[in-house]
Fold each of these.
Amino acid sequence: MSIKKRLIISNIGMIVIPILGFLIVEIILAYLLFVVFNGNPQGKDLSLFIQFRFIAMVLILIITNGLLTYYVSKSILVPIKKLSIAAKKIREGELEYSVKSNKKDELGELSNTFESMRIKLKEAKAEQILYEQNRQELIASISHDLKTPLTSIKGYVNGIQDGVANTPDKLKRYLDTIYKTANDMDGLIDELFLYSKLDLKRLPFHFEKVDLYPFFADFVDELVFNMESEHGTAALIANKEESFIVEADREKLKRVVVNIIQNSLKYMKKDHKEIQVYLFSKPNEVVVEIKDNGIGISKEDIPFIFNSFYRTDTSRNSSTGGSGLGLSIVKKIIEEHGGTIWAESELGKGTSIYFKLKKVI
Ligand code: ADP
C-alpha cells in the first residue's frame, strides 16, 4: 500500500475508531445507567459514572492515536533508517549492505532504486579493480617485451666493442642480429601503438559496403602463390550465389585477416600446410572461418588467446616470435565492427578462428 493511502487510512482511523469506541462506551454506560442504577445514579455513583466516561474517552483517543502513529511511522522510519545506513556505508566505500525491499510503496521503490545503484557501483568498482590489474600487467609485459631485445642488442654491441666479432663474417652476423632485433622491437612498438589506440577508441573507422567474397578471393590468391614454394595449399570455400556483403572498414579488416593468417603460418609445423577460408551466409550475418592444420591450441588456452600479451607455452618456448598482441588487436577491430570472434581448436590437428559480421541486406 502506498504511503499516501496509509496516511489517509490512518487519519480516517483516528476519527472513526474513537467514534466507534465512544459509541461502545456510551452503550456500556447506558446499560449501567438503566440496569445497574435504575436510570438514576446518585452522589458518589454519579461522579464515578462521569469519571469513568471521561477516562474511557481519553484512553480511547490515546490508544488509537498511539497505535496508528506507531504503525505508520514505523513503516516509514524503518526503511529510511536502513537507507541512511546504506548511504553511510557506500560513502565509506563498503558496497555489500543490501537494501532490497519487497514493499510496494514509494519507499520500497526508492530502496530498490538505491539497491540497483549499489549493484552498479559494485560492478563499476570490480571493473575498475580489473582495469587497474590489467594496466599493471600490461606495463609489466611491455617492460619485459622491450627489455629482452634491448638486453640482446646491448650484448651484441658489447661483443663488437670488446672485439669478439673479430672477423668480417662474425661482425656481419652480429650486425644482422642487432638489425633484426631492432626491427622486431619496431614491430612490437607499432603493434603496441595500434593496440593502445584501439583500446582508447582513438582510431577512426571508415565503414563501407564490403563484399567478402572478392575480398577473400584476392587474399587467398596471394596466399596460394606464397604457399606454393612450401608445397602448401590455400582455398576459399563459399557458395558464390549467396550474399556476403557486410559493413566494414576495409583496411582494418585486412589487418584482421593478415594477423589470423600469419598465426596460421607461424604455428604450423606440418609438411603439408593447409589453410581454408570458409564463408557462411546467415540471414542477418556473415560468418568467416579461417582454418589451418597447424599445431592447435589446448582447451585451457583457448579462452585466453584473445587477451593482450597472452601467448601459449608452446609459442613462448618456440622461436616463432610474437608479441601476444596479434589476436587482441583482431578482437578489438571485430568488436568495433559490432561483430564477435571466437576460436575452436584441437591440439595436433589445427585451429579455426571464426568471426561474424552484420550482413547488409
Ligand atoms: P602472437 O604474437 O604470440 O602470435 P597472438 O595474439 O597472435 O600472439 O596469439 C596468441 C597466442 O595464441 C599465440 O601465442 C599462440 O600460442 C596462439 N595461437 C594463435 N593462433 C594460433 C594458431 N592458428 N595455431 C596455434 N596457436 C595459435
Amino acid sequence: MDNTILVTGGAGFIGSNFVLDWLALDQGSDSIINLDKLTYAGNLQNLASLEGNPRHIFVRGDIGDAALVAKLLTEHQPRAIVNFAAESHVDRSIHGPAEFIETNIVGTFQLLEATRSYWNGLNEESKGAFRFLHVSTDEVYGSLSPTDPAFTETKQYEPNSPYSASKAASDHLVRAYHHTYGLPVLTTNCSNNYGPYHFPEKLIPLVIHNALAGKPLPIYGDGQQVRDWLYVKDHASAIRRVLESGKVGEAYNVGGWNEKPNLDVVHTLCAILDELSPRSDGKSYAEQITYVTDRPGHDRRYAIDATKINRDLGWKPAETFETGIRKTVQWYLDNQEWVQNIASGAYKDWVDKHYEKVG
Ligand code: NAD
Ligand code: DAU
C-alpha cells in the first residue's frame, strides 16, 4: 500500500479542517486523495491554500459511485479511508430527507462494498494495517433529560431526526462490515463542532453572519436546548489519534466537556462581537435576538462522555470553549470574503425558505 489515505467529504467543514491540518502537520509522508461531490456544503475555497501541493489530490465525485471509488482505490492503494461525506444539517433533513438516505445510508453502503472488495485483494500485512474510519455524531444516541448521564459508547441508539436516523443506519452498516467480513473499521461519535469554514446555516456561523449583517438572530423555541461544543481542530486531532491507535471494531465518543444552552452560546457570541466589532449605534448585538418557532422533534440535550478516548488513547481537547469561540469569531471577522461568497444564490434561497416558515 502507498502512503496515501482517502478522505471523503474533505471539502466540507470538518473534512477540510482535517485535510489542512493533516498536510500542515506532515503526518508522515501520507498524501490525501480527497473525494467530494461538492454539494452546496462542499467548498473548494476551503482548500485554496493547497493549490499546487502534490500531496493533495482532489477528485469531484460521489461516495455512492462504486466504480469511481473502486478505481481510486486500485489506483492509489490507500492505507486508510476516513469517511466524512454526508448530508449534515438537521433542518434540511426535516425539509427533505431523501438525500440523507441516499448519501448517508446508500452512499456509505456503496463505499463499504468498494472498500471490502479492495481490502480482500490486499496481502496479509496490508490487510492488517488497513483502517476504515467512519465519522459519526452524538445525535445517534437521542436526547437526554437535564439529569441523565452523558452518552457513553454503550448508550442505546435512539435517533430522532431523519439526519440522525440516517447516520445511525450508516454506523450500523460499518459495525456489521467488521462483525461479518472482518473489515478493520473504527467509528467516532462526536458532539457539535465549531470553528473556521463552518457553513453559515449552522447556529454559530449563522449567528455571527446575521449579527454583522444586522439581521435577526433566530433562537428556536426557548433556546434552552443543550449541546456539547468542540473546536473543529480538536475533532481533527481526535480522528488522527483514533486512526493511529484505536482498537479495530470499536467506537469512540469525542466531545469537548462544554455543555451549553443555545441561548448562552448566542449571548457569548454577541459579547465577543460587541468587543471586537461593535455596532455603529453602540447597542449590543444581543438586541437582534429573536425567538422563532421550534425545530420539529428538537432534541433537548446532548452530552458526551469522552472518558474512553482519553483513558485508552490519551486524547483530550486543546481548546476550551472560551478560547475556541474567540478564535472562531476572529476567523469570521478576518474572512468576511469567504462568507460573502457563500451568502448568495442557493444559500440565500435556503435561508429565505427555512426562516420564513419557522419565523
Ligand atoms: P458538511 O455538510 O460541512 O460537509 C459534508 C461534505 O460532504 C461536503 O463537502 C459535501 O460536498 C460532501 N458530500 C456530501 N455528499 C457526498 C457524496 N455523496 N459523496 C461525496 N461527498 C459528499 O459536514 P460537516 O459538518 O463537515 O460533517 C462531516 C461529517 O462529520 C458528517 O459525516 C457529519 O455527520 C459528521 N459530524 C458533524 C458534526 C458537526 O458538528 N458538524 C459533529 C459530529 C459529526
Ligand atoms: O451533535 C452533532 C451534530 O451537531 C452534527 O451531527 C450535525 O451535523 C451538526 O449540524 C450539529 O447538529 P445541530 O442540530 O445540533 O446543529 P445546529 O447548528 O443546526 O443547531 C445547534 C442548536 O441551535 C440546535 O439546538 C438548534 C439551534 N438552532 C439552530 C439554528 C440553525 C437555533 O436555535 N437557531 C438556528 O437558526
